[in-house]
């Protein structure tokens, strides 16, 4: 996500503590689950394995299947002997699950390196961050009136409601669908926000079109590679991350994933899951997973299965489903393609109106939505390991930059952005859903004891959204298995929690 827009967004909220480990649940026949499978070892899958271990206890076998690298869309690339984030790179200070993971794993927060931001419209910088907070506030007011205040109040209200999820989960409550979860937090208003364009909601608030075009659109472009027609709830998730209270993990955010799998004592299998077959039994269904490893193809039976991988066409893991009525198909909708290009070279500051690179003061450039602009953003980035004496490279020096664009950059485009370069590494991500179509929110429960985590991304895609979904599915699976229906889809939870205290 985008870096600091300090005057625009400041959300200072608090939430509840983590839930302690419950007793190992038993099924109606008195037996706990024998084996649980998690398909996918990104942040969602690894967090699910961790929470499943918390709730089902030490005896249950938890197998995690991953055909690629642990971390999924949290990944790094190596440039000149240093590693840099090529995937999910920042975490919000209110991401309480992620904060707890870092604490439990003994990881460290990466030292932040200051850098100013600006918005480029193809011809000039139309919004620039300075070293003076009050000057930034004055400039915002002078150009946009009170639009930024209205936006800040809207984001704060949404975030305050969303933070209720931590209290609900701390008390053990779960939800059987994304709609039920959103309804418990913000009522029908949150659900309607998943169906209504962000631009419409902001205009109704009294936010000016100029502010939407010059501030909101650039944030959406760098965070989701899309425009202000994305749903309002997704936009609010994006805007909540456009502030200065952001952090990342020393050594790379993907360390959280590998650490969670180790802490969960999960059995990691480097394997492609080929098929999931329903096996009926007298008490409850089981699922036969057929999978391919380097040693060949085999199959195993599982009592509970969590799919922590997209099932949409074009990004689908290729899993075949057998024995289900009605038969399973790929979920509707598409994922959005965004290209991250890591360039080691000299930025062409003349492209941005600064012939002398020594006078170029910005670390990151966002862009407005114009057909002629071939990139969404360009930013000077720091390695995942920052030494005490580290300093950000000056524009006249060779530095490492991350460019987000809709498609791969050709040589002429690279030459427009860089005077010269030593290396170029390209990663094409199917990183988040393509928002705006009316496919609705996917189900959480595909079949008894068969769960789908990635449906949460269609409400909002972020590391913490996946972590919240992971906790919800672990609680839901626990309560379904132990027949604790009073802990699922309960109404008026804030009142219920108060009466429990």
TrEMBL record:
<feature type="domain" description="Prenylcysteine lyase">
    <location>
        <begin position="127"/>
        <end position="490"/>
    </location>
</feature>
<dbReference type="GO" id="GO:0001735">
    <property type="term" value="F:prenylcysteine oxidase activity"/>
</dbReference>
<comment type="similarity">
    <text>Belongs to the prenylcysteine oxidase family.</text>
</comment>
<dbReference type="InterPro" id="IPR036188">
    <property type="entry name" value="FAD/NAD-bd_sf"/>
</dbReference>
<keyword id="KW-0325">Glycoprotein</keyword>
<keyword id="KW-0560">Oxidoreductase</keyword>
<keyword id="KW-0274">FAD</keyword>
<feature type="signal peptide">
    <location>
        <begin position="1"/>
        <end position="20"/>
    </location>
</feature>
<keyword id="KW-0285">Flavoprotein</keyword>
<dbReference type="GO" id="GO:0030327">
    <property type="term" value="P:prenylated protein catabolic process"/>
</dbReference>
<dbReference type="Pfam" id="PF07156">
    <property type="entry name" value="Prenylcys_lyase"/>
</dbReference>
<dbReference type="Pfam" id="PF13450">
    <property type="entry name" value="NAD_binding_8"/>
</dbReference>
<dbReference type="InterPro" id="IPR010795">
    <property type="entry name" value="Prenylcys_lyase"/>
</dbReference>
<dbReference type="GO" id="GO:0030328">
    <property type="term" value="P:prenylcysteine catabolic process"/>
</dbReference>
<keyword id="KW-0732">Signal</keyword>
<dbReference type="InterPro" id="IPR017046">
    <property type="entry name" value="Prenylcysteine_Oxase1"/>
</dbReference>
<protein>
    <recommendedName>
        <fullName>Prenylcysteine lyase domain-containing protein</fullName>
    </recommendedName>
</protein>
